[in-house]
Amino acid sequence: MTNHALPSYLNADDLGPWGQYLKQIDRVTPHLGGLSRWVETLKRPKRILVVDVPIERDDGTIAHYEGYRVQHNMSRGPGKGGVRFHQDVTLSEVMALSAWMTVKNAAVNVPYGGAKGGIRVDPKTLSKGELQRLTRRYTSEISLIIGPTKDIPAPDVNTNEQVMAWMMDSYAMIEGNLSTGVVTGKPISMGGSLGRREATGRGVFVTGREAAAKRGVAIQGARIAIQGFGNVGGIAANMFADAGAKIIAVQDHTGTVVHQGGLNVAELHKHVAETGGVAGFAGAEATQDRDSFWGIESDILVPAALEQQITAKNAGQIRTKIILEGANGPTTPEADDILNEKDILIVPDVLCNAGGVTVSYFEWVQDFSSFFWSEEEINARLTRIMQDAFNSVWEVSQEKKVSLRTATFILACTRVLAAREVRGLYP
Ligand SMILES: NC(=O)C1=CN([C@@H]2O[C@H](COP(=O)(O)OP(=O)(O)OC[C@H]3O[C@@H](n4cnc5c(N)ncnc54)[C@H](O)[C@@H]3O)[C@@H](O)[C@H]2O)C=CC1
Ligand SMILES: O=C(O)CCC(=O)C(=O)O
To answer: Which of 39, 80, 295, 366 could bridge 112 with an S-S bond, Cβ 3.0-4.6 Å?
Structure first.
């Protein structure tokens, strides 16, 4: 008998991003055949760790931050997923992000379960020393459950190679030996992989190219609007611009800049590095307010910032042919319905942004074998995996007459639950 009760730590009236994920699971369940008897497994995380992270601030005061590591599912392998430092991080969000990792890792068939972590903090309010103390204390608190064969963190919003190096070093101090494979997204000088920094944006570009071919959209000259100009959005912008597309609009947390002839992406990167955001970029011909960004006509729209950006409120305004979800969870299920109704092709997050974790997998394999690959080899393998995953999802979507999101969930959840079934339940 299926038990639909929610875990007691959840507030049923305000499920946030976790509620968004649960609706996605409801949509895939009818397609899971006999494996649907296991579907409750996907509706509750395997393990949740909530930690207090105290640090001494530079002025001598003690500050406390709330941190999380959620291991959603480990049926197919150790947990894998990034760590986010952001002032709006919540448990519901980290649970959803960890569950999307389960689906994503299975979609591209890397041998991992899904996990994610975060700290509710605005890192821009911390000095470099404070950030290092916060990262090290957090690593120590979650060291109970992470490890190279248990759960392997990586970068996400507002974390980077430096943060990964501190995490690796803290874990090495605790364990008394250096296991570079405990985190991925590390500096190249310390067990990192060539191509990891660019991998998520490259995956967005590769799946975007496949989707464009299906829809008859030429990349050369295509008008592209991007929300988020960080690791994912910024690199995707470079790759589309290099392929001849025009980046006509970019929005980040500071503002929105527009140029119908195409923004100069290299100059925009320079401006962001100097000022912290796109606002005030001299190369823009216009600016837009936050909400009207969604109404800008484009051929391809790339949400690459945060979740729940495209909602029932703004989905009706969107005028594009293809949406590439660089961000995790940018589209609510209600917005999904509106966009599908408008025949906009959505390449879902759990497929579109899987390039990052794919090269994280390469990094982990390289760390274990202490044998490092060339960048050409990495990019070629990444491209092949992303193209194959896109084409498998496309076939399922055609065969079952479902969206690419539901098709990706069908492929991935079938893999996860088949592993669960064959492993069995008893210790
Ligand atoms: N870094 C990675 O390898 C991966 C990241 N992702 C997802 O991609 C998204 C972006 O991550 P990263 O690029 O790594 O983060 P990042 O920290 O490098 O950049 C985030 C970008 O989003 C913008 N942003 C933040 N709040 C915003 C708002 N309210 N409105 C508009 N823009 C806003 C920031 O200004 C910045 O440009 C997240 O959803 C993340 O989970 C997914 C897969 C892998
Ligand atoms: O590289 C990784 O391990 C995970 C990246 C991540 O957090 C994501 O895909 O959302």
So the answer is: 80
